[in-house]
Amino acid sequence: MKSYIGAIDQGTTSTRFMVFDKSARVVAVAQKEHEQIFPRPGWVEHDALEILRRTEEVIGEALDQRGLRASDLAAIGITNQRETTLVWERSTGEPIAHAIVWQDTRVAEEVARFAGNGGQDRFRLQTGLPLSTYFSSLKLRWLLENVPGAREKAAAGELLFGNIDTFLLWNLTGGAQGGAHITDVSNASRTQLLNLKTLDWDEKLLAAFEIPSAVLPQVRSSSEIYGEASLGAIAGVPISGILGDQQAALVGQACFRPGEVKNTYGTGCFLLMNTGERMVPSNFGLLTTVAYKFGGSNAHYALEGGVAISGALVQWLRDNLGLIQSSADVEVLARTVSDNGGVYFVPAFSGLYAPYWKENARGVIAGLTRYANKGHIARAVLEATAFQTREVVEAMEKDAQIALENVRVDGGMVGNELLMQFQADILNREVIRPVIQETTALGAAYAAGLAVKFFSGLDELRANWAVDRTWKPQLAEAKREQFYKQWKKAVTRSFDWIEP
Description:
Elements: E1 4-10, E2 14-20, E3 26-33, E4 45-46, H1 48-65, E5 73-80, E6 86-89, E7 99-100, H2 108-115, H3 124-127, H4 136-146, H5 150-155, E8 159-162, H6 164-172, E9 182-184, H7 185-188, E10 194-195, E11 200-201, H8 203-209, E12 218-220, E13 223-228, E14 238-244, H9 245-252, E15 261-265, E16 269-276, E17 287-292, E18 300-307, H10 311-319, H11 329-334, E19 344-346, E20 364-366, H12 374-400, E21 406-410, H13 417-427, E22 430-434, H14 439-451, H15 458-464, E23 467-471, H16 477-494
């Protein structure tokens, strides 16, 4: 019997390949960053061919760590940065332009134009999503409109569209020589082109966004065999799981029951609640999205609240201001002060996501006095993530009519104990970190493993989940509400910074 399962975790700033055993323990891991390209203010791009190279490199490096071969792997899953939009030539695999990253705001004027005919929620009934620069629909339309000849080639079937999951799968299963052009329902639900009820592309949406159906991948479940890898190091291994990164973390945290919640602290910060087979429309600024669909089982849905900038704010402090040398240094610097000194940092670098959905907001630092120092700035950077999470939690409780008892957390920032304690304090709820913190990659491995019977079912996956540490709230109620009131005041200062 094959002993291991593999997972490609293609994120916004780096790509990892991880190998797990049946107990969900990490056997091998390799990771490499890729370039963040900023051609203009508000534009964020990735070189998809660089991402493909990094993917191939980390697969080889992780296998070499333990002397593993393709024959040791039962299957491979893929999880990926969602919404990041790419178009490439069917005949060569060459992208027609850099990938447009989910954070990119170049289509802000198109958002306003589309919202002018029916409002920001004109497609929410079908898609669960408001009009925003965030999703793939208007990014894809921009590429077809602005790359010379792209629209004509797309209509003729010469171009292929996908988010990064689709591009990797296509290349790893043969590329121009018969690669599988497929996405799963969780990624498809982030394009704003999928009908949440039919779980397929919606002809009326395609017509509204002027997207030719010939460019679109086939929509499949999150857990089934899509094809076999042709890449040398993993040749012959089935690729049998795809999940968008946040849905993958939900699966990796074993949140399979309605009402279970996880929060992932990565480049952005994303809180998801499993709502079961029931789609819950949001009245409080959240997204209704597909959580996962395992094989022939019914799809499960989720409510999601997304914060655009969380870990990216720490990187900005490091790279743009030079206040720290490594991301881990932010906690050390923040601990040089006892509180935020009245300083609040609203990181609306790409506008505000849930629950506000304000494209024209921009980042502000409020409450500065001569007393404030770099320690206060560092503390405000960390607290911004916790404050934004509370806003999403409050919206989620209203929409779902469920009071959250605790929040399961994962992602790169959960090692920051100052942040985790403040998160518990400002939420007034327990924050729980699991033993296995690589939940995004693990979720992709679970999806792949279920498809090939490497895992027997959800009960086995639940049994793998265990608590590493729990943070309990320690902040007095009066202080908690004062901090939050000042945060809310700071947020309003970021509104309407960009004028039409």
